[in-house]
Amino acid sequence: MPRRTIGFWYRFAAVICKPPLVVLLKRDWRGMEHIPAAGGFITVVNHNSHVDPFAYAHFQYNTGRVPRFLAKSGLFKKGFVGAMMRGTGQIPVYRESSDALSAFRAAIDAVERGECVAFYPEGTLTRDPDGWPMTGKTGAARVALQTRCPVIPVAQWGCNELLPPYAKKPDLFPRKTHHVLTGPPVDLSRFYGMEMTAEVLKEATEVIMAAITRQLEEIRGERAPEAPYDPKRERSEQRRRTQAQRLGGSTQDGTSGLETAGPSGREEGQAQ
């Protein structure tokens, strides 16, 4: 997308957001040459701070190819934020509704119009204790295989030092560095022409996440765990540990789990 087509609202957002980002963060941005100069594409980015969408948007704005993010539909409804989201062409995600698939259709349409759509494949802030990318959701892979567009892996690090995941207060001093490393397009050609089954989408997503993780390994100068953090697996293990602790406590006091649960036992089971 030529820089002249960025539009008023994106330029206005840049005027507001860039000054504090420049003050708060030093920049180590590499790999801009991998951002396509023309044509539709998607970027896939790791997510480790509430600040990093702004810092990453700053990085990509400077390439001249502004990103269209997928964002929660509630942000679009009213007020200045809603006007900004609509004006900059972001894509609303309607979760658990009849419009849930509209975001993917909108993403495909944007790519086919020659725009960039930015995905956070993890779907949320990483919960990995060391900040590595988690397992990914399949939305980016679905759009990539549908459109066969370039998929550009982007790793970032440093905003998590300014505002760690799930923290409420930033750590302003010393001034942090926002590291970005963009890689060459992910090769998904072996999946082209395949039926987009759950297994194919899962495997393509694993290829995408592995590419992001390799970029982050280069930034950090260390190896990621062999198996990425899986929130579903962790929740399952946590439920199993909780159940084992309850059964262990019941055995020690000589009663069964049902007897110790009392009238609230059903509610405790639901909370798991």
From TrEMBL:
<dbReference type="GO" id="GO:0005886">
    <property type="term" value="C:plasma membrane"/>
</dbReference>
<dbReference type="GO" id="GO:0003841">
    <property type="term" value="F:1-acylglycerol-3-phosphate O-acyltransferase activity"/>
</dbReference>
<dbReference type="Pfam" id="PF01553">
    <property type="entry name" value="Acyltransferase"/>
</dbReference>
<keyword id="KW-0012">Acyltransferase</keyword>
<feature type="region of interest" description="Disordered">
    <location>
        <begin position="219"/>
        <end position="272"/>
    </location>
</feature>
<dbReference type="InterPro" id="IPR002123">
    <property type="entry name" value="Plipid/glycerol_acylTrfase"/>
</dbReference>
<dbReference type="GO" id="GO:0006654">
    <property type="term" value="P:phosphatidic acid biosynthetic process"/>
</dbReference>
<feature type="domain" description="Phospholipid/glycerol acyltransferase">
    <location>
        <begin position="41"/>
        <end position="159"/>
    </location>
</feature>
<keyword id="KW-0808">Transferase</keyword>
<feature type="compositionally biased region" description="Polar residues">
    <location>
        <begin position="244"/>
        <end position="258"/>
    </location>
</feature>
<protein>
    <submittedName>
        <fullName>1-acyl-sn-glycerol-3-phosphate acyltransferase</fullName>
    </submittedName>
</protein>
<feature type="compositionally biased region" description="Basic and acidic residues">
    <location>
        <begin position="219"/>
        <end position="240"/>
    </location>
</feature>
